[in-house]
Design goal:
Blueprint (H helix, E strand, L loop, with lengths): L1 E10 L3 E4 H5 L6 H8 L3 E4 L3 H15 L9 E5 L10 H9 L4 E5 L5 H14 L6 E9 L9 H4 L4 E11 L3 E9 L7 E2 L7 E2 L1 H23 L8 E4 L4 H11 L10 H4 L6 H11 L8 E8 L3 E8 L1
Parallel strand pairs: 4-5, 4-6, 11-12
Antiparallel strand pairs: 1-7, 2-3, 6-7, 8-13, 9-10, 12-13
Helix pairs in contact: 3-4, 7-8
The chain binds coenzyme A.
């Protein structure tokens, strides 16, 4: 018995901030932001628990189950509502269920970590039969809206997946790593805003993601040519292009939402997954790579047979 993703749901806050809006009060332009990042607009004003609950509710409905069928809630986030309790407890509360729950913080790589952790829990003795894995972040609350180096990139959003035991679908390979000595290139202190060395993050991300996908593929006994669908962390389209060039994967195999969402951190892989599903790209047997990177510096990749 293996595990499949039975339903995907998303949530984005209503308020849209376009590049033109940003150019009203900082020295930048729509053209510059699009060319350097691929981002055209982002959603702001989100609250992590609210977006996560909406995405979870949508995923449960898509999976054709009810909240009582969920036996564990795993939320990947680096922007919890409070220091404690874990924000996942409030998702369980909103769903009206009393199963186990936990938060996982691997910053923007969170969904890949959460998926692999959930998969392992479900296959362990007495593990849950059905789990919610959610990626949700509200980084707009931690952006310095006068800093053009970061304000152009981030937005709020959430995506959720219902994982269930099934003969269809399997985790084939995984790779995770952190370089804690790179903390200084991307961090956010309590009650403060995001600090980032953009160029350095860019370089490190391309290297880390390329190597991580290669490692996960090797473990799965596959090569880049076997990949049908790539669901990359949605940070910058040029990072995604650089990784695809290095791995010789055509960009057409990637599914991207960042033009309209910006970097939604842990929300970005499941948001890309929902877009891939909508495009009809996720069929039984499809080989999917989810790969993320972010503050830590942390990275992670999973190779999945849909
Ligand atoms: N608008 C206009 N000009 C800008 C600008 C903006 N928003 N931000 C920076 N610039 C200027 C710089 O001041 C610099 O000017 P100079 O050449 O006169 O010194 C020039 O544009 C180039 O800056 P640089 O930082 O080299 O640009 P870049 O091509 O690296 O793009 C980022 C900047 C931030 C878009 C890019 O580095 C990036 O996306 N990095 C990764 C960040 C990331 O993914 N973070 C999240 C990880 S989870």
């Amino acid at each position: 018995m293996t595990i499949r993703i039975a339903g995907i749901g998303t949530s984005l806050p209503a308020k849209v901030v376009t590049n033109h809006d940003l150019a009203q009060h900082m020295d930048t332009s729509d053209e510059w932001i699009r060319e350097r990042s691929g981002i055209g607009e982002r959603r702001v004003g989100g609250i992590t628990s609210e977006m996560a609950l909406e995405a979870a509710t949508n995923a449960i409905e898509k999976a054709g189950v009810v909240p009582a069928d969920i036996e564990f809630v795993l939320l990947a986030t680096c922007t919890p509502d409070q220091i404690f309790p874990a924000t996942s407890t409030q998702i369980a509360r909103g769903l009206g269920i009393r199963c186990g729950s936990m938060d996982v913080n691997a910053a923007c790589a969170g969904f890949a970590y959460g998926y692999a952790a959930a998969y392992g829990m479900m296959l362990s003795p007495g593990g849950p039969d059905r789990m919610l894995v959610i990626g949700a972040d509200s980084l707009s609350n931690f952006v310095n809206w006068t800093d053009r180096g970061t304000a152009i990139l981030f937005g709020d959003g959430a995506g959720a997946a219902v994982l269930e035991r099934h003969e269809q679908g399997a985790l084939l390979g995984q790779d995770f790593g952190v370089a804690g000595d790179l903390r200084e290139i991307l961090y956010c202190d309590h009650d403060d805003t995001i600090v980032m060395e953009g160029r350095e993050v860019f370089k490190r991300a391309v290297r880390a993601v390329t190597q991580s996908v290669q490692n996960a593929l090797e473990q799965a006994g596959l090569t880049a040519a076997d990949i049908d669908v790539v669901l990359p962390h949605q940070a910058n389209i040029r990072i995604i292009e650089a990784v695809c060039t290095r791995l010789a994967i055509p960009m057409e195999k990637t599914h991207n939402v960042l033009e309209h969402t910006g970097n939604t951190s842990a929300g970005s892989i499941p948001l890309a997954m929902a877009a891939a599903e909508e495009a009809g790209a996720l069929q039984p047997g499809t080989i999917v790579v989810m790969t993320g990177f972010g503050a830590g510096m942390a990275w992670g990749s999973v190779v999945v047979r849909w």
